[in-house]
Amino acid sequence: MMRVTIHDTCIACRRCYVYYPEVFIRDRNGYAHPKREEVADEWAEMALDAAETCPVGAIDCEE
Ligand code: SF4
């Protein structure tokens, strides 16, 4: 399992939850949140890719 955290530096670019809706959701203002506190192993690569490609580095993944 992997723990995903999104910091308040998110700029609501939409990328993470558009590409990986299994892992991320948006709130009413378009800011991203983890869909679950712990990400199942099968989705860990998605979480890592989102963290690497977030334009402001707002996503942290911890194993
Ligand atoms: S990719 Fe980063 S900046 Fe864009 S919505 Fe997700 S957390 Fe926010």
Walk me through the structure.
GO terms for molecular function: iron-sulfur cluster binding; metal ion binding. It comes from Collibacillus ludicampi. This protein has 63 residues and is α+β, with helices and mostly antiparallel strands. It has a single domain (2-62), classed as Alpha-Beta Plaits, CATH 3.30.70.20. The protein has 2 helices and 5 strands; from the N terminus they run E-H-E-E-E-H-E. It has helices at residues 15-19, 44-53; strands at 2-6, 24-26, 32-34, 38-39, 59-62. A 3-stranded antiparallel β-sheet has the order 4-1-5, covered by helices on one side. A two-stranded antiparallel ribbon has the order 2-3. Iron/sulfur cluster binds at residues 6, 10-16, 32, 54-56, 58-59. Iron/sulfur cluster (SF4) binds at residues 6, 10-16, 32, 54-56, 58-59.
Strand order of the largest sheet: 4-1-5
Architecture (CATH level 2) name = 2-Layer Sandwich
- The structure class reads alpha+beta
Distinct bound molecules: iron/sulfur cluster
Query: Count of DSSP helices?
Result: 2
Radius of gyration: 10 Å
Number of strands: 5
Low-confidence region ranges: none
| Oligomeric grouping of the chains | single chain
Query: What sort of overall outline do the alpha carbons produce when their principal axes are compared?
Result: globular
- Helix content estimate: 10-25%
Termini distance? 6 Å
Largest sheet: 3 strands, antiparallel
In terms of DSSP E residues, the strand content is 25-35%
| Whole-number count of domains | 1
- Mean pLDDT figure: 96
The helix/strand series, from N terminus to C terminus, equals EHEEEHE
CATH topology annotation: Alpha-Beta Plaits
The top level CATH class name: Alpha Beta
